[in-house]
Amino acid sequence: MNYKLEDLVRIAKRDNNSIRPYLYVDPLQGKHLSVNPGKSMDLFQEMAGLLEEKYPKERILVIGFAETATGIGAAVAYFGSNVAFMSQTTRENIENSNYLYFTESHSHAKEQGIIIDNYSEVLKKVDRIVFVEDEVTTGNTIMKLVTALNETFPEFKMKYTILCILNSMKETRMAELAQLDVDCLYIARMEFEYKVNEIDKYQYEDCKHQKVSSDSSMANEILVHDICDMRVIKPKDLYIEACDGFVEKVLSRLVIKKEYKKILVLGTEEFMFLPMYFAKELQDQYRNCKVEFHATTRSPIMISKDEGYPLFNRYTISSFYEENRITFIYNLEKYDYVIVITDSQTDTSGGQQLIAALEAQGNENIQIVRWCK
Fold first, then answer.
1. How many CB atoms lie within 10 A of CB 53?
2. Dihedral, CA atoms, 58, 99, 165, 317, nearest 10 degrees?
3. CB 83 within 8 A of CB 62
4. If you write DSSP's letter for every residue of 329-340 in order, what string do you get?
5. pLDDT tens digits for range 48-104
6. Residue 316 class from Cβ within 10 Å (0-12 exposed, 13-18 middle, 19+ buried)?
7. Domains within the chain, CATH numbers bracketed
8. pTM score > 0.85 for this model?
9. Cβ distance 92 to 86 under 8 Å?
10. Contact call for residues 191 and 184 (beta carbons, < 8 A)
11. Burial status of residue 146 (CB atoms within 10 A of its CB: 0-12, 13-18, 19 or more)
């Protein structure tokens, strides 16, 4: 499919970020905007096809970048016939894990890392590491990780590729990466700082009133014991097998009524692919029902009721993973059924606050699916 630039990008204003005041929002990514999961998967399958065409005989390790591109990375691995292993960067603290840290200078959450347990064994079995992002502006963050990997594992002469939906790097930067033998594959080319001045033409809402309390009663919970964590490097086949098992178990425990015509599936922060995968399976099984997907996020973005601006409401809630961490959910509407899927095992008020936000939009039938070891 030939994607046009306008199919893949909307411009939004970051909330109180002087380093980079703008943010590109992808309407097909499934992060800040709800999306038909089938359309997202079609895009990600095309990205996987770029790897298959470019490296047909190589074995690949895919690393998706937290938080917005974790779902994209996992989907590329799922569809890529030459992908052998998959992982992601993370900002979460997983006990008894060894981390390799690097920074993301323009982000609201600057420090992130990869868990490098078993990396030495995996790097023996792959030819290339592919970093997956939604949009690459300078490539600086990825190159910090490349440097850290080379310094930590000097015995491996790895080859690297950046794979993204949108590439807005300058030509000089592209040339620098090529000299370092770092390939760059992408769906669409976008000029550097594309339409960034457009954020000045909108009238923005005061978001303070959209904080929610924890007074709402908790929704019904389904506990699942075998969600596969992509933060720890995994063979691709093992991860997909776990996803299939999850979908089968959860679908068997849900009651999808015939009168449901519109269903929302919500992921939480870095945990995106499995909820999206579930939403796609739900869509395939209940074809008379409109299924949408998106996720909570750490990204603070301004909202506006002006025509053409992508985000029209915002709720501030505690993270599912850490009580004192602030997260956000955008563009909530009324659905017949809402299914929240999270891999958080931490007891925070985030669940109750998300339910309160959903109820504020008129949602009554809410189900939470949670990982339980």
1. 10
2. 150
3. yes
4. EES----SEEEE
5. 999 999 999 999 999 999 999 999 999 999 999 999 999 999 999 888 999 999 876
6. middle
7. 5-28+36-193 (3.40.50.2020), 208-371 (3.40.50)
8. yes
9. no
10. no
11. buried
User: What pLDDT score does 244 carry?
Assistant: 93
Q: How many CA atoms lie within 13 A of 156 on its CB side?
A: 22
How far is residue 269 from each of residues 129, 156, 199, 281, measured CA to CA in Å? 24, 32, 25, 21
Q: Is-contact 231 65, C-beta < 8 A?
A: no
Nearest CA-CA partner of 183 in 8, 2, 50:
50
Lookup: tokens for 169: 């790097």
Task: For residue 261, give the 3-state DSSP assignment.
Answer: coil
Tally of CA atoms within 13 A in the half-sphere of 123 that contains its CB: 17
Could you tell me which of 258, 282, 338 has the C-alpha nearest to residue 41?
282
User: Amino acid identity of 271?
Assistant: F
